[in-house]
Amino acid sequence: MSKQELAKRYLFFVAGLFVNSLGISLITKAEMGTSPISSIPYTLSIGFAPSLGMFTLFYSLLLICLQLVILRSRFPKEYWLQIPVSLGFSYFIDLTMGMLDFLNPQGYLWQLVSLLIGCVVLGVGVFMEMAANVVMLPGECTVQAISSTLHTDFGKSKVAVDMTMALVAAVLGLVMYQELAGVREGTFISALLVGFLARTFQRLIGPQVQAIF
């Protein structure tokens, strides 16, 4: 891979990271829960001072530590890129949450519209990160670490990890706020839709994007 191609891929990845964070912010603004990967940081951010972006950063670093425990000497050197990626991702989440400060959908219908738009945007962001094929976010790297260690299917491991995160977020919400503060129907809708949309974008425009690189 030439330096020029690598530079294009990283630029595309950073753009995808921004789109990804915008999708998460749109879903979060719908106040119907958020994506499974963001459910724990979001639940914590409801009752504590640090922003959603900062809690996302702390959570990402925790996931990287978990990968180190799981993989040990098999921890790939390129996985250290998760640290600057996590910093950028967390910054983009706070940036897009600020950009959408005006957005406050009223009524279930408009909340649902915001949620679905967010799912589409997040699906585009995930597709862009997949197409760039240079580095993964800590959530996906954690799934890959578990999948490679236990010799399980990545897709099934992803579903299991997402369900675990949503369950932990639900328990945290019940303990801290006596309600399902960070997990609602939007969490499960996004879990079902985003992966499907990302794969659909990959099938429809993936080859054209790769040709650009």
**Strand runs, count:** 0
What is the helix tally?
Answer: 8
The residue ranges in which pLDDT falls below 50 over 5 or more consecutive positions are: none
Shape: globular
Largest sheet: none
> Quaternary status of these chains?
single chain
- Give the distance, in angstroms, between the N- and C-terminal Cα atoms: 10 Å
Helix-strand string: HHHHHHHH
Mean pLDDT: 93
Beta fraction of the residues?
under 5%
Please state the structural category.
Answer: mainly alpha
Question: What is the share of helical residues?
Answer: over 70%
Radius of gyration, rounded?
17 Å
Top keywords for this entry?
213 residues; mainly alpha; 78% helix; 0% strand; globular
How would you summarize this macromolecular structure in one to three sentences?
By secondary structure, the protein is mainly α. Helices cover 78% and strands 0% of the residues.
Give a written overview of the molecule:
- With 213 residues, this protein is mainly α.
- It is globular.
- The chain has helices at 3-29, 36-47, 52-71, 82-99, 108-132, 138-150, 154-177, 185-212.
List the SSEs and their pairings:
Blueprint: H1 3-29, H2 36-47, H3 52-71, H4 82-99, H5 108-132, H6 138-150, H7 154-177, H8 185-212
Helix pairs in contact: 1-4, 1-5, 2-3, 2-7, 3-4, 3-6, 5-8, 6-7
